[in-house]
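To close the section, here is one more complete example, presented without commentary so you can practise reading it yourself. The ligand is pyridoxal-5'-phosphate.
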Amino acid sequence: MNGRPGESEKGGADTLVRRIAEINNKVARALSRSDDPHREVGLIAVSKTFPVEKIRDAIDAGLPSFGENRVQEIVPKYEELKGQKIEWHFIGHLQTNKVKKLLEVPTKYIHSLDRLELAEELERQLQKRGELREVLIEVNTSAEASKSGVVPEEAMELIRKVSRLSSIRIKGLMTIGALTEDNEIVRRCFRQLRDISLQVRDESIDGVEMSELSMGMSGDFEIAVEEGATIIRVGTAIFGDRYSPVL
Ligand SMILES: *Cc1c(COP(=O)(O)O)cnc(C)c1O
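Output:
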């Protein structure tokens, strides 16, 4: 950095404004290279591990959407920031026994619905609350065993089954690209997600919309946008390095 006076607060609102502008420029350029250059691409700021103060800086810098991957983290952050006009996304692996707690947060999307058992618990808790929620189906496109997500071959069947649950609305798909320097492998993940969403669309399943493709993180969002992302989830490129890499 160039160390101008007044810029001592690394990661403060000014730094964030600059980083966000950079991301927006890259998104705009990637969009222009994509098949559907006029669509909107939503930016979710992934604030996991960062304190609420950083989220306030990001709100000041104009960001409206935040993503968290742990129930025990999103709930207190939501409570502390209640009253702010922001939207919350749950993007992490979700344990069935944490569903009830998560629903205390009025999530925009839960991005990580990846198994029927989880959907059934979600349905049960939503019925108790008399609510509907919008979700994305997480697909494991990288074949990395450590990752959550339904395997691609079982995505359609899961979507059919979840579509019969009356309190859950499927809005699209989510994936985490392979963690590799090889851009072509990463691109294949995103292409596969898009292909699955087109197949699902062809089936015209009642109550299922395929309007969202949530894919792309700090290291690969440009590829994701080229391949059709409508939502990117960006953490470190906005907030700087996390002390420990938490997925
Ligand atoms: C942490 C995380 C991100 C953001 O990762 P960065 O590399 O910091 O941009 C996106 N999606 C999910 C599911 C995550 O857990």
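Once you have examined the tokens, check your reading against these statements. The longest strand covers residues 168-174. Residues 183-203 form the longest helix (21 residues).
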